[in-house]
Amino acid sequence: MVTASRDSKSGIEALSRKDFVSDQEVRWCPGCGDYSILAQTQKLMPELGIPRENIVFISGIGCSSRLPYYMNTYGFHSIHGRAPAIASGLKASRPELSVWVVTGDGDALSIGGNHLLHVLRRNVDLQIILHNNQIYGLTKGQYSPTSELGKRTKSSPAGTIDAPLHPLTVALGAEATFVARTIDADPHHMVGVLERAYQHRGAAFCEVYQNCNIFNDGAFAAFTAKEVRADRMLYLEQGKPMIFGKERNRGIRLNGLTPEVVEIGVDGITEADLLVHDETREDPTIAFMLSRMSYPEFPVPVGVLRAVQRPTYDALMAAQIEHAIATEGPGDLRDLFVEGDTWTVE
């Protein structure tokens, strides 16, 4: 099987987006944000220079989890919430593969919460793309772990009393080494974030705000709509001050330990007073702060919140096995089975 490094496309047959489009009919509701995520994923794949047979998309259950059907690569539509576990096993046994986990806010953060936490803390070298529409779409409109407090749905007719989870905060709490967010309505930004996730060595977690126009239409429109986006979203750029607004005249600064929105040029405030984004900071405090910022009090941050380096689980495991073989020999499966406490029943 041909393999490709992440830094070179030499010797790899040139592919186009069409090569990554399967022959399956795309079965999402017209207007669903998943179409945008699928299109940008298919657009990115040929740019990575990897043979299709070396790419695997693994999903759980939900609308988002149909995506592997539509990618002309290997894929695995697995069981509810277990995609991270299956992906971990695949990456551990076949480290040369590019493994992508596709999941939703319900699949990943309810039944799959345990598996998500552990794949992140272990830093398995794969990409996790979480489609967040703040609703259960496949099961027809029940509230999800990310639905806002008081959300009225079929399963919460008087309004949900559950405090919502914040996916990026959860990922940071699990010690994820790469944490990012993008939106379905900004394809250019999404492709950039997905490419950054691929380039990262370790578990890369990307949340995508994705509109469910049937059961939760407009959940993010207050800040993602094109006409208001500049004033209500904060596009994070490494090493640059946190500036936003159509006139690029507003920013984020720290007042002690508390972020605040300020206007450049007012009360003597300059760009030098603003918080400078540093995604490589080992201390996750600022990344946590960004993960909690929400509209209307703050602009909604998108981009890479954290990107730090730590040994990957699969690399550590391979080194441990190599050391064990070097010091103790290759081993024998039969000897292992009969090792320790054994007895014969006559």
Describe the structure in brief:
The protein is of the alpha/beta class. It has helices at 34-44, 67-70, 83-93, 105-109, 113-122, 167-173, 187-199, 221-224, 229-232, 285-292, 313-328, 333-337; strands at residues 55-59, 74-77, 98-104, 127-132, 178-183, 204-209, 233-235, 243-244, 250-255, 258-263, 300-307. The chain has a domain at 17-219 and 311-319: Rossmann fold.
* Level-2 CATH architecture of the domain at 17-219 and 311-319: 3-Layer(aba) Sandwich
Strand content: 15-25%
The 3D shape can be described as globular
Detail the poorly predicted runs. 1-10
Work out the radius of gyration. 22 Å
Number of helices: 12
For the secondary structure, the number of strands is 11
CATH evolutionary superfamily of the domain at 17-219 and 311-319 = Thiamin diphosphate (ThDP)-binding fold, Pyr/PP domains
How helix-rich are the residues, as a percent range? Answer: 25-40%
- CATH topology name of the domain at 17-219 and 311-319: Rossmann fold
Give the N-to-C terminal Cα separation: 50 Å
Category from helices, strands and their pairing: alpha/beta
Strand order of the largest sheet: 2-1-3-4-6-5-11-7
Average pLDDT works out at 94
